[in-house]
Amino acid sequence: MPRTLRSVLSRLPQILLIAGALGLMFRTERFFTPGTLTSILTQASIVGVLAIGQAFVLIGGGFDLSQGAMLALVAATVGHLSQAGWPPLVCVAAALVVGLGLGAINGFFVSVVRTNPFVTTLSTLLIFRGAAFIALGGRPIANIRVFQAVDSGFQFGATFIPYRGLIFLAVTLAAWVVLRRSIFGQYVYALGGNAEAARLAGVRTVRLRTWTFAISGLATGLATILFLSWLRVSKPDTGTGYELDSIAACVVGGVSLQGGRGSILGAAAGCLLLQALRTQITMSGFPEEYRTFVTGLVILTFAAADALARRNERS
């Protein structure tokens, strides 16, 4: 089979998903309005930031299932600081530092102890979720207003531009520069492509893999800020399922679950596409459960397509 045809076939799920999403979108006249599009950008911002952190881990050959539980624990920490009267800047710093530290814990076990990334982050998912329950005593902390300024925006003509959406775009651009235009980014791709070859070439693979997980934690800390600016409440079950949404966004955007492939822009685009599809599902009157069904179907389909593409390249 010609290489070009194999390349097209390997991208067939993305093509079909985009075509199906566009078909649904054009059925609704209200979809392509400035208000709807900015709403999609805003709603995608939290999972979008998580997907950017997830992309670093996946491209580096890892896997992070703990993002949603990590978000809950960071939110619980910020909730207590807010109740104690700490200023917003301290709460911002705490969210980022705690997220970075929790991500580094994942990285330590995967890189230094050499436990399997799936098992490690599944375990820390349970640990972080349990810690959030303990920290909150099983009760929510409401009226967290330290980040309320982030949930505002400005008027551009007849369209309201939210800060949350702009932060998502700014983080996407910064992460793209780091991954595509820096030595660090080149090393991450080398790590995911062939970790042993990267080590023999002089790359400090243990430190590098730890940093990819730490970046995922840092992104989770930022996503927590966006989340609390929106809902202003910390609950033990906060962020449930967000890790699957971030993985789905990465996979739809062309990030390989086997490492060494993908881009930040693809992960961000995948998140926006999935959010647009979910918005269309809601606008079409389908039940909320369809969104969960679509997410699971997308992950399975694209993971299978990626595995088939890799097998075709080796043959």
TrEMBL record:
UniProt membrane topology term: Multi-pass membrane protein
Keywords assigned by UniProt, alphabetized: Cell membrane, Membrane, Transmembrane, Transmembrane helix
Location, primary (coarse class): membrane
Pfam families attached to this UniProt entry: BPD_transp_2 (PF02653)
InterPro entries for the chain: ABC_transp_permease (IPR001851)
Regions crossing the membrane: 12-28, 40-61, 68-86, 92-112, 119-141, 161-179, 211-231, 290-309
Location of the protein in the cell: Cell membrane
First and last residue of the signal peptide: none
Keyword hit for Plastid: no
Coiled-coil annotated residue ranges, if any: none
Protein's recorded name: ABC transporter permease
Lineage: Bacteria, Pseudomonadati, Planctomycetota, Planctomycetia, Isosphaerales
